Predict the structure.
Amino acid sequence: MRYKVFVTRSIPESARKKLEALYAVEMWDSENTPVPRGILETKIEEIDGLYCLLTETIDEELLSRSKNLKVVSNMAVGYNNIDITAASKRRISVTNTPGVLTETTADLTFSLLMATARRIVEASDYLREGQWQTWSPMQLTGQDIFGATIGIIGMGRIGEAVAKRAKGFDMRVLYHNRSRKPEVENHLGIEYADLQSLLKEADYVCVMTPLTPETKGLIGKDELSLMKNSAILINTARGGIVDENALYEALVDGTIWAAGLDVFDQEPVDLNHPLLTLPNVTTLPHIGSASIKTRTTMAELAAENLIEVLEGRTCKNVINSEPQRRV
Ligand code: DGY
């Protein structure tokens, strides 16, 4: 076999077979335990292709150990776990899996929004814990979704898909993005707003932007203080975009009403994290794209991306466009 490939976790068989048909593949064969850093450091010295997940930090120090590495294929659309500059410097291509998880992630975002607004998890626990004594007028009352205003921060593919769902609920949709998108505005009937206006007017603020140095801590104390007391913050993008300490304070002192979080700054989140003590926080373990079909498609696409680069073919999912080295 011409090339050696290391896969950092157990992946669906269909994806694994694509790689094994062509290369000498080694896999960290575990569902639930990330590959230890020490093993990754050893493997990287001898491989041509790395197939990894968002749980691996692919930084300068790791990449500097590589000798033959040509491609890092991330099984995710987000790639904040990879130092793109360090990879480009070594002419290592980095690929991701855009497009295939858009609708599934938008479904989860909207589910989380609805679950948080209508206190679904809290209400279910209330029943199971034997607290349900009688029907009562204001018991477990939440916020309405239909006709409310949603503010979407980041109008990429997933932001658009969330906007479509919101329109189905007769919501007014505001969005904020680095650049305005007049075609999307016309097509979906949504309105551009600067960040401050969006935060002031929205009943639901959805964070849908990638984590970059510019978006790190984008939603902090000042931003939260602009939001309505009845507003709900939803984050299914990356934890680092929201200042978790400021969010905790805002939820405790009633600056905002609730939050739905699929992502955390540190994952898995520490069970003693203050946010987990609050009844007005609905939490999930980063499952935005977690449908069987979508995760299988992502795994296969990540394998195809890796193969395209190693075989010297054009790969449309290369993030750092020019590298394609040593092939
Ligand atoms: C991604 O792809 O970046 C998600 O966070 C996991 O699907």
